[in-house]
Structures are given as C-alpha cells and as structure tokens.
Backbone:
C-alpha cells in the first residue's frame, strides 16, 4: 500500500500542497496529469529524493517519510531511465542486489526470463533500443523485490507498437510480482491498458 | 574527427574557419620546427648526459606527478561540491578557487614564501617549525611540489567541476534508491563515470606543473641538483647565454610532455 497524506512540497517553479491518495496493496495505480504539473516531483518525494515541507508517506504499515532513499525499499524508474552506462545489462540488473549485499545470480536470471532480456546480459546500455532499455530499467528497479514500484512516464518515449508490448510486460510483472505500482503518465491509454486505480493531479500552483 | 558534410555552398564557410584556426596550428608547428632546426641530436644527447640536467629531469617527472596527484585529490571533492551543492558562501568559495587561475604565478610564489617564513607558530616561522620536525619547503624539493600544486589544483578543480556538472544527478539518485549510501553511490557510479574527467584533470594539472616557473623561482629557488626542474633549467641555460642548451631542454620537455600525455591516455583507456 502507498498512503500519502497532506503532502506539501515546493519545487523551483511551482508548489504542491495537501496531496493525499492511497494505492491499495498490489494495485496498479496510474497518476494522470498534464506535463509540468508536478507528477515527477511527487514521485521524487516518494523515493526520498526531494525534501517535503509537510505530510506523511506510508509504504504498507511503514512510515517512510523521514527515511533515506536506500531504506524505503522502493523501485524507481525515472523518465530518462538513468541506466548506468559504465555497467553492462547484467551488472545494471544486479546493482541494487550488490548494494544491499544480496546474492544476485539467480535473481538476475529470473528477471531476464520475466522481462525477456536474457539475451541482452552482456550488452552495454548504449546499444539498447528504447523498449529494451525500458525493460532493463524495470528489471533493475525490481531486482531487490521492492514493496513499491514507481514509474515515471515509462512509455512516453516509445513508439506505438513498443508501447503495446510494454503494456503486456507491465501486466505480467504485476501478475507475477504483485508489487504495488504507481505509474505516472500524461497518456490516457496507459491508464486504460493498465490501471486498477486512476488518480488525477490538477491545479499545481 | 568525423567526416565533414560539405555541400558546395558551405565550402567558403569551412575555408574561412580553416584559415583562421589553421594560422594558429601553423604557429605551433613553426615553434617546434624552429626548436628542432636550432639544435641537433648530438646536442640533445650531450645535454641529457649532464648530471645536472638528469637530476632536473628526474625531479621534474616526480614533482609533476605528485603535484598532479594531489591536485586530483582536492579537485574531485571540490569539483563535486561546487557542481552539486548549494550553500552559503559558495560564491566566495568559487572566487577563491578562481584566484590561482587568474593570479600571476609569480605572486603565488611570493605568497607561499610569506606564508612559510612570516606566519608564526609560537615564536618561530612556519618554515622553522617544519624544519624542527624534519620537513623543509622553502628552497627545497617539497617546495617545488607545493608551488606546482598551488596553481595546478585550481585547474583540476575547474575540470572536475565541469565533469560533474555534465553528469546527470539522476543517475546517482537512482543508485540511492537502489540501496546505496551517498558514499557508495559516489564510489560505484559517480567516480567510474568521471574517469575521463579525472584523466583530463590529471593531465591539465600535470601540464601546468611542468610549465610552472615563476613561483618555483621565488619559493623553491633554482639550485642546481636540488630544486632545479626542466623549466628552471631552460632559464639557467639562458641566463648564462647558452641558447643551444636552452633549446635542447625545451625539446626534451616537449617530448616528455607528449609522452606523458600519451601514457595517461593509454593507462586511462578509451572505454567511456
């Protein structure tokens, strides 16, 4: 479960106040809103990458409001993916496991199957197509079995057929992992294809 | 350089750029040709045989290496702080970091001399206090390294700052969400990605150190076999009217500089 209560935060060009929403455990929520209205900022706050002015954030029964990003157990896929260019695909997938001192081999193989990227393991990230890179970023975020998955406009940069393909990847990830997901987008079709819960963000000031 | 796509009508544009830029390339080439023409291989070998020049070459190599290494050691953290953080007094710190870049190097030497010989610890100068503890900077080899470092580090800071500014912060942020502490993200993501910048910073600092002369003259002196580096050897040769010797040493410096540049590239590799 993701439970956000009376969240207020300020960015360079706007402020958001009194944001509240709940995503039930295991649900796939799509947060809609036009570009620049603060969706990304909210995700950053959930990850612990942005200080908030007030409010609380719960993941399940855990109050993570004051925790550093590493301790929130959150999988984050930013819009630009930010894959590690100095590591190959396998190393990217294993990164979060190594950082936590967990064994990686078996889990990485598992992710390769789940996301259909086993044949990319030895590749560098520079040569990946948009859809491939997206799957690797998703796998990297899921590797350590986070309780919450946050996706920032994951499909906006993809062409239509790749997007359809990613819709089915995301559906199967959801079926197989049951991770509580918050997917931020401005694309209505993402919500139609994936959402159990649709949230809309209006009126950033 | 990639292939240039030159449409016929674009040719005058590229010709104009080539003439303006090429004039400078020609000047540099002429300087090297002039040096080579003024001396002979025998002359260079003679010069290299002199024990004083050998000592000077040796001191140059290790003092520049140390100065560049220390420059990188402060350039990485300071560059990162300036690129990634906001804090009170940052503008002042930026100005301080620019001083060695804009200040005439001679004044750096003078300032070091004053620090070491007029700042007091108890009732002795800093230099005297250090001497009592077995260290010597003024007119000593350590002073050569310090004088080189004082200027070179500012260039390393600039280079590293530029490197970190170009690196998206997002990539480190993702590392944080994946379970890294700040230290781990820095070590496992930021530093490996900054490798090219670090090589550039090291090279720039090394080259500045090689060319340093003014501060050395004032702070470390140019004592044969003790604080003489190649740049001061050129000066010493000139001061006694041996132009050939000065030119021969200049050519040795060019060879050393190009050699080190190639070595750094090779050691640093080309991946990323």
Residues:
């Amino acid at each position: 479960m993701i439970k956000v209560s009376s969240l207020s935060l300020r960015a360079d060009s706007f402020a958001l106040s009194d944001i509240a929403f709940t995503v039930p455990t295991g649900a796939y929520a799509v947060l809609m809103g036009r570009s620049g209205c603060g969706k990304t900022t909210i995700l950053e706050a959930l990850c612990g990458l942005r200080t908030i002015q007030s409010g609380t954030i719960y993941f399940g029964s855990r109050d993570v409001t004051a925790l550093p990003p590493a301790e929130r157990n959150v999988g984050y896929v930013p819009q630009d993916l930010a894959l590690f260019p100095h590591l190959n695909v396998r190393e990217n997938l294993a990164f979060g496991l190594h950082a936590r001192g967990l064994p990686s081999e078996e889990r990485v193989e598992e992710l390769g199957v789940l996301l259909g990227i086993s044949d990319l393991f030895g590749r560098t990230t520079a040569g990946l197509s948009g859809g491939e890179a997206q799957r690797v970023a998703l796998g990297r975020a899921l590797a350590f079995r986070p309780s919450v998955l946050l996706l920032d406009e994951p499909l906006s940069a993809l062409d239509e057929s790749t997007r359809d393909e990613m819709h089915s990847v995301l559906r199967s990830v959801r079926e197989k992992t049951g991770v509580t997901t918050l997917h931020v987008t401005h694309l209505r079709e993402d919500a139609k294809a994936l959402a159990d819960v649709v949230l809309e963000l209006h009126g950033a000031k | 350089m990639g292939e240039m796509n030159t449409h016929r009508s674009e040719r005058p544009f590229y010709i104009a750029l080539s003439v303006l830029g090429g004039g400078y390339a020609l000047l540099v080439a002429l300087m090297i040709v002039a040096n080579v023409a003024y001396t002979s291989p025998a002359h260079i070998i003679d010069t290299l045989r002199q024990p004083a020049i050998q000592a000077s070459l040796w001191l140059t190599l290790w003092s520049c290496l140390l100065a560049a290494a220390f420059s990188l050691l402060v350039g990485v953290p300071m560059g990162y702080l300036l690129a990634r953080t906001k804090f009170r007094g940052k503008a002042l710190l930026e100005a301080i970091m620019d001083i060695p870049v804009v200040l005439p190097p001679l004044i750096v030497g003078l300032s070091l001399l004053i620090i070491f010989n007029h700042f007091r610890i108890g009732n002795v100068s800093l230099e005297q206090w250090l001497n009592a503890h077995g260290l010597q900077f003024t007119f000593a080899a350590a002073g050569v390294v310090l004088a080189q470092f004082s200027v070179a580090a500012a260039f390393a800071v600039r280079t590293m700052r530029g490197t970190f500014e170009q690196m998206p912060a997002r990539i480190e942020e993702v590392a944080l969400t994946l379970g890294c502490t700040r230290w781990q993200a820095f070590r496992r993501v930021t530093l490996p990605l900054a490798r090219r910048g670090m090589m550039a910073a090291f090279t720039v600092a090394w080259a500045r150190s090689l060319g340093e002369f003014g501060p050395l003259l004032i702070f470390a002196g140019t004592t044969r076999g003790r604080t003489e580096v190649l740049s001061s050897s050129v000066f010493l040769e000139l001061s006694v009217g041996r132009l050939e010797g000065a030119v021969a040493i200049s050519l040795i410096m060019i060879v050393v500089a190009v050699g080190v540049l190639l070595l750094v590239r090779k050691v640093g590799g080309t991946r990323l």
Notes: The domain at 64-229 of chain B is CATH 1.10.3720.10 (MetI-like fold). The first helix of chain B runs from residue 11 to 38.
